[in-house]
Every structure is written in structure tokens, then in C-alpha cells.
Amino acid sequence: MKYWNKFENIVGVLMRSIASVCLGIVFALFILNIATRLPFITYNPKWIDETIQFFLVWMIFLGSAELVRTRGHFVVDILTDHFHGTATGRVLAVISTALMLVTYAVIFYFGVRLCMKSDAAMYTLHFMKKSYFYSCIPVSAFFMALFTMRDLIFCVMDIVTHGAVTRRLDAEKAEAMKQDDDAKAIAEAAQALKQDQEPQ
């Protein structure tokens, strides 16, 4: 487990770093794109739009994989939250996590096929193939599937241990929220809203 946590942290740092670099490049190119539209500037490179698209999609897909790793991705958790900590909730967690794993596996498979079929060069960046553009799909889907497999193992272990894994993860989440000012503000706002909605 120690080696897995180390591997996971390294992958997380790499994905956040690459996504941050992509964001910086996108921002710089947006500024350049705006500047080249000024009437007194004659330089108008055609490669800017396609380059922005390239780094933007890589940033989005790597960011999505990082959110899956940290369990911060968007989920519909009405049922799992309602039955949280119960045997029903643990079974629902296994089912929903397994469905996510299948989804990421399908995305990975068709992403690889798309990359293999996209041998043509990009329109303005002739030195790059379109497969480099599309490769963000299988790369991110691979890591999404990997971390979802981790969650699926935790869900199965949670059933075996009668909720011990959930209690440990809840404790870790609560500890992390204590150090997160944004999370504390959201939790306080949610608590205040809940109190306002309660009948007097």
C-alpha cells in the first residue's frame, strides 16, 4: 500500500503539473491571439487556434483524470449518500464504481482505435499528427480506469470489513476538509441552508 500511495502521489503531481503548464500556454496564446487582431499589428499566425485546442484538451482530460484520482469528479450520489454507511450503500457503491470502470474502459478502447486511425497531419501544425491530439483520450481514460479499479477494490473490501474502509476514508476526508478553507465555507453554507429549511 505504501508503494501504491507513492506511485499515486507521483502520478498526481505529474498530471497537475502538466495540466498547469497547458493552462499557462493556453492563457499566453489567448493573449497573443487577441494582440494579433489589433489593427496596427500585421502578424497573424494561423497556428494559434489549433495550438490552443491541443493544449486545452490535454489540460481538460488530464485534469479530469486527476479529479478521478482524488475522488473530486462529478458524480450523482443521491442513493449512495442516502444509504451511506449501510450494507445497501456498500452494494450500491460496488455497482456504481463497476459501471464507471466499464465506462472508462470503453472510452480507452475507442480512444486507442481513434488514435490508430488518425494518421493525418494537423491542419496548421503539419509536423504533428492528429493522433497526438486525440491521444489525450486513452491516456486520461487509462488513469481514470486505474484509479476506479482502486476504488472498486476498496468498495469490495468495505463489504468484507463491514464498513471499515468507509469509516477510514470518511475520517481522512474530514481531516482534509479541516485544512481546506473552501471546503469549510461550503460545509458551513450547506449547514446553514439545512437549518433554514428545517421547520420552526
Automatic annotation (TrEMBL):
The keyword Chloroplast does not apply. One of its GO terms (cellular component) is plasma membrane. It is a multi-pass membrane protein. The chain crosses the membrane at residues 12-32, 91-112, 132-149. GO terms for biological process: C4-dicarboxylate transport. The keyword Cell inner membrane applies. It holds the Pfam family DctQ. Keywords: Cell inner membrane, Cell membrane, Membrane, Transmembrane, Transmembrane helix, Transport. GO terms for molecular function: transmembrane transporter activity. Its main location: membrane. It is found in: Cell inner membrane. Residues 28-153 form the Tripartite ATP-independent periplasmic transporters DctQ component domain. Belongs to the TRAP transporter small permease family. This is Tripartite ATP-independent periplasmic transporters DctQ component domain-containing protein.
